[in-house]
Design goal:
Elements (H helix, E strand, L loop, with lengths): L2 H6 E5 L29 H8 L6 H17 L3 E5 L22 E4 L2 E4 L8 H14 L3 E3 L12 E6 L2 E7 L5 H11 L3 E5 L10 E5 L5 E6 L6 H8 L5 E3 L7 E2 L2 E2 L7 E3 L2 E4 L8 H7 L3 E4 L3 H4 L5 H4 L1 E2 L2
Parallel strand pairs: 1-2, 4-5, 7-8, 10-11, 15-16
Antiparallel strand pairs: 1-17, 3-4, 6-7, 9-10, 12-13, 14-15
Length: 312
Amino acid sequence: MNSDNHHREIILLGLPPVTPEVRGMWHKGYPVHKGETEASVNFATLLAKKQGIVPDQDLLRREWLNFVDTLLLAGFHLHIIPFPEGLNRPDSLYHDAVFIRDGGMIFRSIWIKGRFSVKDRITEGEYHSRLISTKLKKTVITLPKEAFLEGGDINFIETAGGSYYFGGLSRSNRLGHDFVRGIVRPDHYVLIESDGYHLDTVFTPVLSAGNELVALIIAAGSIKAKSMAQIRALGIPVIEVSAQDSSGDGDTLGDYAVNALIAPGVMVNCSRFTTPGVEEKLKKLGIERFVAPLTSFKYAGGSVHCLTNEIY
């Protein structure tokens, strides 16, 4: 399989069916989750709770179907796995399971199973592993005891100029990333401290049509200075974006535009970048843009990258 296909084969979890007891995703509001640190609180869900926001199920379903169509249009090959029945229960707040990115990482014949620092999400991680083991026949590998790892903190890309592993230290720790490093053996390995509760809420790489890493889009205001220095040392152009293109700040929820799914020459996200000049730069780099609005999902703190996971 060539590296372009590596980026193109994606797994998604289907939406949970509506039942008499469970009237759709987040039908009682969005659960508030926090990892080990204060910065790991999901700002979006906190805001949704404060404002009493509950998603409109018809809109949510329409947005999800449009999102699937958009991925197909962008040339991705999709494996849509049915939502696990065991999680679709009245007493369950685990509907963040639709964010299959967080459960772990597929690498060749294995599923590196994440370990959630958010206790409420451990159950969904168990379900993800069982589904990937049975549906995709992957061998499940578990992390060492003290390691934490959530897939939203991993950005791994194989490019024409070598492989890159960017690891966020928000809800994951060095032990977790070092374990994955030992398996995937990337050419470049950078661990990043940020205020985003997952790295993919503040950061996305950009790949040219020739599969070269041509830019890194970063909500720099959310990244610690030491980490920014390490990123810049790679010599890859950095495109800085505002908090609005990330998860937002104060009482303003961002657009999550930076939470993007990429492949060579392609970027799919939920909105255009509002930071002046960013879309123009992407156009100059020859990036084909696809946008699928996901308003119902951003209040859960997730978007295109969270809903997808690559089969490497």
